[in-house]
Amino acid sequence: MNRIFLLLFFLFCCNLSNAQDSLATAEPPKTASVKYTEADIYADTDIIETKTFQKNFKKKYTDGNFVYEQKTPEKNAWDHFKEWLASIFRRMFTFKNPQASLNFVAVLLKVLAVLIIVFVIYLIVKALINKEGQWIFSKEAKQKTIHYSDIEKNIHLLDFEKLIQESIQSGEKRIAIRYYYLWLLKIMAQNHYIEWDIEKTNSDYLYELKNPAHKEEFNYLSYLFNYIWYGEFEIDESAFLKAENQFKKSLKTFRNE
What we know:
Blueprint: H1 2-25, H2 77-92, H3 98-129, H4 133-136, H5 141-153, H6 160-169, H7 173-190, H8 202-208, H9 212-230, H10 237-254
Helix pairs in contact: 2-3, 6-7, 7-9, 7-10, 9-10
C-alpha cells in the first residue's frame, strides 16, 4: 500500500515539473502596433468664456451664516461690572447657576434705566407746566429765572401796587401783568382760598377753589396771564387795560369786598 502511494506521488511531481518547463519556454503573444495620424487628432473648438468676480463680492459673505469660527467677544468694563454685581446677588440670593444671576442683573439694570428715563421726563414736563418752565427756555433765561423766583419767594412781603405802577411807567406791560397775577395769588392765599406754594401750578390752585364762580374767574385770569406772559410779545394799550380791569375786579372779589 505504501509502495503504491509513493509511486503516485512520484508521478505527480514529474507532471508538475514538466508543466513549469512548458510555461517557462512559451513566448508571449505579439501585439500589432497602432499608428496615429494628424487626422486622428480631435481639435476642441468650444469657446471659453472668461469669468470675472464682481466688485465688492466679499460683502455678500460677511453675514453671520458664513462665519464658521465664532470668536468669543472680549469683555469690557461694563461686562465686568455686571459680573461683579451678579456675584453680589448670587451671594445674597439662591440662583441655579451664574448665568441666572447675570440674567437677573440684566433685567434689573434695564428696569433702573427705564425708571431714570421716566423720572427725567417727569422733571422736564413739570418744568414746562410749572410757572418757571417758560423762563428756563426763554431767551433771557438766566436773568428772569433769578429775578422772578426771588419775587415769588417773597410774595407776601412785596408791595405789588408800587411794582405795577413802576412797570407801567417804564413801559413793561407784560411784567405788570405778571405782578397782577402774583398779587392775585397773594390775596387768595391771605383769604384762605388757596394754600400758597412756589412749587404749585395754576392747575393746583384751580383745584383748590371750591366755588364754581371762583374757578371760572381764576381759570380765565390764568389764561390771560399765560397768553400775555408766556407769549413773550408786547401787548397794545387796549389789551393791557382790558386785562388790568379784569385783574382789579378779581382782586376785589377775593378780598371779599
